[in-house]
């Protein structure tokens, strides 16, 4: 399955429209290219419908949201829905400010999202309408490794509420469509020490879904596994050369640009429940 | 010639005002410094005229244009024209949305550009008033290697229409002032797998022109050749270390920071027609 | 002292709210994580007070200021003042445009800043109400190595005017609270050849102060020394591998992610006057 998903990305070069934050946007564009997609970043309200129409998928990331881009997100999302393009939502910092929480709910109300990806704090906020998000990083009390059962139940709940595939990333990643759940044990803790690994993953999910529109759940699981595996392989490589977190970021994208079925088959640790 | 152009950049440290996109802006700033220039990014309408006045050249890149920055581009461009500063236009995604196409034409109408740099799809859009641009990457049907003769003719046509030096980048690069045409066979296909190589080149052209105002055609050709050569040398280095596209990006900027006449004389493949 | 300051950062993981420019924001976020902090970038006026309230410190950087973000800076700064959070100001390009100079003065009038960090041109502008800033890089006539005595006197003057710790960075760095002055001789000239070393330092100061609110002067000195030391160590490493400025940038952040007391005790060259 994973092999086919990845082949489709590399064969189709899906064009993915990203309305995203200005902090990690360059890494998102580079990892989209690395994984086989073609990114286009555009957030001016006058052009977002047209850009989305050209594309194979839409990624909405509220990392540095502002009043203008929120309207662009809504407009692009509605157009993507009309065209049955996959829409991937990254509710960065939901729970950290009223604006972020309300915007996430507003987007979920107006747009049918194919996939929602967040950390445990963000997903809990969306699920329960309140949260304890501290900044854009996960609140320790929500760390998924200590709460795997609870996380699965949260992810399923949000999935059923929204009819979306829900991804909770953390030490262990959870992906569910409300019925089938995958547990992914790839990744490395050092990924939390570079900005944007979450945003990058969301973008990769956008590319994988854009090239596999009929298999959103499987495309998402493969993307999550691939990103985690890149984090692992990059860490091993980092140990060899003995450098720090900026080299680690470089290596993660490097591995994504060399992903292939062999690497995936050797390394993915995915459990289906 | 190339040697002198480059010496001027390194000697004069031209200050280049960039109104550019938020995706590749960091790479643009770093490659400007690497090639010997000094970049200043400023897009607030209240200050763009003053910043342009301080500078030796202006780079306008519409990669993530919005209503506010379009006005800043116009204002800065007019001021640069008054001061006879070179203005370099990168019409990113012209043809991909009505806003981008119209903005590119609006800029060309209001501002005299010294140099216009785009891929074949973008330049065709500007030349013919319509295009088939798919996102921000070149449409395959427009790929310059298959259409070299056609590309030269397009570039010449736009050059005569606008009285600008026109650059079409692709597997083979074309630079023309409408009379004299240069064909540059440096570069590597992997450059398309990192975001912003086009934007970076446009910025380097801005630096080279800013330090060689009397030789815009030659400065542009040298910048295109230097960038392509950095892409080639970086690829060779990448093969040695066996990594991926993010390391490749790093190496390209690294080589630009070490460019010198020896490297250029050894490697430039420029044909004058 | 330095050891304790750094331990506090790594132990407390201070959340630092940054309203900063879109050029170097990714490097700022990554170096904040590397040094032990947790960055959150947010500039929409509707959420800045809430985000600041969650945080341990606020960094204001006017590198790509615009009318909207200036208001966000004021609002966040006032809230931070109410909460006694350290506020760090980076007046990027003060002196280069009327807008930047006036904004810097407006911020200083409305907000009590714990630390102001700039190059000699920027600090002179703030100190004297006029300047000769050429772009965002230091004007040569203001280079601190030639004017150490003058720089110290400028820094002290601004410090007394504003009741802030003032940092002038250059070949030699000066940090003063108006009474006690530290001279830091770490760093390397190549740091000026990558964009954002100043912005990154300001962010590191934000993290160090956020975790050491009772020792703003010492936290600032330690951050300046740590950043300079990373620049030095990165340069040594760069010589070994023989690459260029983009690798240098990577190495600087790498070293920051591995900073520890041994490294600091071995390498800091700080003189107290």
UniProtKB/TrEMBL annotation, chains A, B, C:
Query: Which cofactors are required for activity?
Result: Mg(2+)
| EC number assigned by the record | 2.7.1.50
Q: Where do the annotations place substrate binding? A: 41, 196
Which EC class is the enzyme in? transferase
Q: Where does ATP bind?
A: 117, 169
As for what it does, the entry says: Catalyzes the phosphorylation of the hydroxyl group of 4-methyl-5-beta-hydroxyethylthiazole (THZ).
Q: What is this protein called?
A: Hydroxyethylthiazole kinase
Question: What organism is listed for this UniProt entry?
Answer: Garciella nitratireducens DSM 15102
Record lineage = Bacteria, Bacillati, Bacillota, Clostridia, Eubacteriales
Gene that specifies this protein? thiM
